[in-house]
Fold this sequence. Notes:
The protein is of the alpha/beta class. The chain has helices at residues 69-75, 106-112, 127-137, 144-154, 158-161, 174-186, 204-217, 230-236, 263-268, 273-279, and strands at 3-4, 22-23, 29-40, 43-54, 58-62, 86-94, 97-98, 113-116, 192-196, 222-226, 239-247, 253-262.
Amino acid sequence: MAMPxxxxxxxxxxxxxxxxxxxxxxxxxxxxxxxxxVSYFDAVAVAGVTLDVHCNQITALIGPSGCGxxxxxxxxxxxxDLVAGARVSGRISYHGLDLYAPGVDPVEVRRRIGMVxxxxxxxxxxxxxxxxxxxxxxxxxxxxxDIVEEALVNAALWDEVKGKLRQSAFALxxxxxxxxxxxxCLAVQPDVILMDEPCSALDPIATSRIEDLMADLKRDYxxxxxxxxxxxxxxxxxxxxFVTAEVDEHDHRVGRLVEYDATDKxxxxxxxxxxxxxxxxxFG
Length: 284
């Protein structure tokens, strides 16, 4: 089975037997989720999610705490593989190919589908070495200065750090550290950026800068963001998925997709009363 190439910097998805050699062409739908469930050991955390994520759009996942938004997000790039007892069922297709098919290299999946976490997590290295880290471990030795500069420019951080690239990343403010983490993600030339509550630890000014940055980045990248901040989802996203938590017969909370639609419709004319109740603050 051949991996379709993403026009953004194609690279082999990798497999032991040489399958998934990639040069895919950019398509409108990046991810297709069909009846996707995620379980931890015997407990179902998210059940029966079906939705499409489109190219060069920002898709927001919203819902109350404990509904499985972050668990669902981590299934997009197989981060759940690193969690003991985690199991993903259903089908997640990336440019038409099953991300969980035998032989797909999860490391290459995570290069193409990058992740920015809730709290800034720079490495205990210089600003330069943080950004150059990914390209180095993928074998790049030449042109690192250009890669670092381009990533920092695209993360709207270059002008603030260009004179202190050899200083510790920990000397940056929280908002700058988060943009550095975005630059570190961009340096390995992904196709998709996943963001798990990227502004929850930031002040309003830093949050505004990250939101502006997301609007710029979606010209070149597809973005999926988890956020508790409904105003943020309304401001930045094109599509919104509302996930709620239901209690099953074993008294476990199970996340279920209630509604997925254009953000304007979700926030002004939702189709489900549960969505309206959450957005208006009546529950959640």
